[in-house]
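Question:
When you can, review this sequence-structure pair and walk me through the C-alpha cells.
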Amino acid sequence: MSPKPSLKSAEDFLSFVNASPTPFHAVKSAKLRLESAGFKQIKERDSWSSSLHPAGKYYLTRNGSSIVAFAIGQKWKPGNPISMIGAHTDSPCLRIKPVSKRQSDGFIQVGVETYGGGLWHTWFDRDLSIAGRAMVKTKDGAIEQRLVKVDRPILRVPTLAIHLERQENFQFNKETQLFPIAGLVSAELNREGGTAKESKDNIEGEKEDGQPFEPLQTPTDRHHPYIVQIIAEEAGVEPSEIMDFEIVLYDTQKSVIGGLNNELIFSARLDNLMMSFCGVEGLISSVSSPSALDNDSTIRLIALFDHEEIGSQTAQGADSNLLPSVIRRLSVLSSSESESDKSYDKCESDVSTAYEQTLSTSFLISADMAHSVHPNYPAKAESVHRPEMNKGPVIKINANARYATNSPGIVLLQEAARRAKKASSSTSSSAHGIPLQLFVVRNDSSCGSTIGPMLSAAMGTRTLDLGNPQLSMHSIRETGGAHDVEYAINLFESFFENFGELEAKILVD
C-alpha cells in the first residue's frame, strides 16, 4: 500500500486564505511569513544603496495591498538576471459603497458595488461579514491604517422565494437586488433606546448641534452608525476616530479540505491566493538553507499585485511602475563595498545599461489559477488539453498572446520541474520531478488573461503563464486540488534554485 499523501502544505494554505479575506490581509499574511523567515522590511521612499547587501532578504509594500519580496545572491553583480514569480492578491467581491446607508420595508440594508467579474448569483444566501482597512485618527493627530476583520456573520443577500417568481434561469438586477440585509430597523431602534434620529446640515455648513463644518458627511452619517461602531471596535478606536474605510464583504464559511479521500480544497479566493501563497512559500523554501545564496549570482523575487481582477491599471497593479522600478533599483546594486566605492564615472559606465541587461536575461512566471476540466461540462475543454486536479501545475498557452508563454519558457520550466524535489503526495519512486500539464482554450471560446502579457510587454522580460487547476473560478466558493499546493511550492523552489544555471543554457536573442 502506498503511503498516505501529506496534506501539510494544503493545511498551511488554509490558514493563509482563512486569515486573508482582502488584499490588505493577504499582504499582512505574506509579511508575517516572510518576516519569520528572516526577510526585512524596506520602503520605496528610502534610499536602498546602504541598506541592501548580498545574501540579504527584503520586502516592501505599496498601498498595503501589493508586496514585493526578494533575496539577493552573494555573487550578484549589476545587470545580472532576476528570477521572478508574479501573482495577485485580489478576488471578485462586493464592496461597501461610499454612502451605504439603506433601509426598506423595515430592513436595514447596506449599499454595495461589484468588484471584478464575479459569479454574483453565488453570493446569495451566504453568511457574509465585513473586512478591509479603516483610516483612523490617532491620539497624536496622525492618520494610520488599521485592518478590520469581523468574524461573525452580519449580512446576507436573500433570494426571492421560488413561489413568488419561478425562474428557470436565475436573473437579478445588480443595482437593486444585490443589496444585503444587515438587520431590522425595529431591532436597531431598540438597541439605541428608541432615540435614533437623522442628522442634517444647514445651508451655512454648520451642523444643527453646533459641531464644526465637515467637507464630507462623516462616516456615521454616510453609513449605518452600528456598522461604523463595529468597524471601530475591530480597529481598536472610537467611532469618531474613523475617518474613512475601504470595506468589502466576505463569506464567513472557512476554507476546508474536502473530498472522499481529502484530495480537494473547498475555499473562497483560490483565484488567486493559492498561487500567491505558493509563491511566498516557494521563495522562503529556496532560501531556507544558510548557504542557499552563497553561490547565487541572481536575485530571487516575488511580486503580489492588487487589482488584477479589474485590469491592473492602478498605482499598485501589475500595469503600474511597481515591478519595473524595483528591478531598476536592484539592477544597479553593487555586490561589494569595493565596487560601490569606485569613482562616479567608472560606476556610471558600469551600470548605465544594467537595467536593460537585467530585463533581457530575467524570467517571470505569471502565476494565476487555471481551469480544470469540468465533469458536468466536458465539451467546454479542448479535446486534448484537459487539465486535472492533483496532476501538477498547468502551463497556459494562447496563440493570440492572452497568455505570455512561449517555447523557450516551456523548456526552462520543464527543466526546473525535472529537478524539483518530489512532492510527498507522489507515489513515484523517483527522488525528483513535478508533473506539468498544458492548456489552451477552445477556438470557439473566449480566453481570459493575466498579468503576464502586460508585464512582459512593459519590461521585455521572458514570461510564462502557469497556475494550478480549479473549478468554479470567480464563485464565492471554489474547488481546487489539495496536493497541487505542494506541487507548485516545490516547482517554484526549484525555479529559484536552478534559474541561474538554466538561464545561461537557454539562449534566444
In short: The chain has two domains: 8-90+268-505, 93-251.
